[in-house]
Design goal:
This protein is of the alpha/beta class. The chain has two domains: about 10-75, no CATH class; about 90-310, Alpha/Beta hydrolase fold, catalytic domain (Rossmann fold). The chain has helices at about 10-20, 30-40, 45-55, 60-75, 80-85, 90-95, 125-135, 165-175, 190-195, 230, 245-250, 265-270, 290-300, 300-310; strands spanning about 100-105, 110-115, 120-125, 125, 140-145, 180-185, 205-210, 255-260, 280-285. The strands form two sheets. A seven-stranded mixed beta sheet has the order 1-5-2-6-7-8-9, with helices on both faces. Strands 3-4 form a two-stranded antiparallel sheet. Helix 2 (about 30-40) packs parallel to helix 4. The chain is globular, with a radius of gyration of 19 Å. The mean pLDDT is about 95.
């Protein structure tokens, strides 16, 4: 079941954003959409849409512009991003939906970071922006993508036709290619599958943002508006886990660090479900809702979080 949203990053969305940016008289709705998406991707169109919105002279619109301008400036400041946006083959590879992306690390090729991108084909910021952020670490990078509603649990496109076969292939590829240290990360809709993968693939540490930790069957099931019980029932029952006891049994071999926002009750519930497990560190971001990746970027800490994951775990 495909996930359909104009906010899903991809080549078609990039064309849509370019057409809106060139439109002589876009609607307010179109300007809001253009500003939102241009900010998360660091695109040139942000300032033009922001100026048009500011011309309305409304305080609520100005608050929206100020908030998104901060995001745009932080994304735009990522070293190398502007050049990467102009690199058509690279941008095409990162924006392509359902096609994994891999590159060998320039400094530490035996260290591998596997990033589970979201159903929006991003990591709150664009995949390309995240790549620009991570490249200075010099590690090997594998971006997995799944643009469906199943969030990697029915298949991992380009890797395996189901979760188990994908995990086996990832583990075999890691061993064959000599990746001595493997790290995983997930955000939002990719949080559950990426956490589950830490117990299916040998790895060292995990970094999560606004994750889900329990999709087991029962009256208290709540994984959010998109991963409903109806969607879960189309996923193999063998993957319907409460991950807390599984992570606890995994022992100290894997270090977990999880960020969640104090203002998001569901994210808080799923993160705190893992509280008390010795090798799980929970970090609540005060005044933050679901957007924990952008919050860490705005705080100037996102790259440091990944550096700590891979070099101080």
């Amino acid at each position: 079941m495909r996930f359909e949203s104009p906010y899903q990053h991809g080549l078609a969305q990039r064309r849509l954003l370019a057409s809106l940016d060139a439109k002589p008289d876009p609607s307010v709705k179109q300007l809001l959409f253009l500003a939102t998406e241009s900010a998360a991707q660091g695109l040139d169109g942000f300032e033009r849409s922001a100026a048009a919105l500011e011309a309305y002279g409304r305080k609520d619109v100005q608050r929206f512009v100020d908030q998104h301008r901060s995001v745009w400036q932080a994304v735009r400041a990522i070293p190398g991003l502007e050049a990467m946006l102009d690199d058509t083959p690279l941008a095409t590879a990162l924006y392509a939906i359902d096609k994994p992306y891999f590159e060998t690390g320039s400094l530490h090729p035996a260290k591998l970071l596997i990033v589970f991108t979201t159903m929006y084909n991003n990591f709150e910021i664009s995949n390309l922006a995240l790549l620009a952020l991570l490249r200075p670490l010099g590690v090997s990078l594998l971006f997995l993508k799944d643009g469906s509603r199943f969030n990697y649990l029915n298949a991992i496109p380009g890797i395996g036709k189901d979760f188990e076969s994908a995990a086996r292939r990832i583990a075999a590829n890691n061993a064959r290619n000599g990746f001595r240290e493997v790290y995983l990360s997930g955000f939002s809709s990719s949080g559950y599958a990426s956490l589950l993968m830490t117990m299916a693939v040998p790895c060292t540490a995990y970094l999560g943002f606004s994750i889900r930790s329990d999709i087991s069957e029962g009256p208290d099931f709540n994984a959010g508006d998109y991963f409903t019980a109806e969607i879960r029932d189309q996923v193999p029952p063998s993957l319907h886990h409460d991950l807390a006891p599984m992570i606890e049994r995994s022992g100290q071999a894997i270090a977990y660090r999880l960020f969640y926002g104090s203002l998001n009750a569901l994210d808080k519930r799923h993160a705190r479900h893992l509280a008390g497990i010795p090798h799980v560190v929970l970090e609540e971001l005060d005044g933050c809702s679901h957007g924990t990746v952008v919050r860490r970027l705005l705080d100037g800490q996102l790259l440091a979080d990944f550096r700590s994951l891979m070099f101080q775990a």
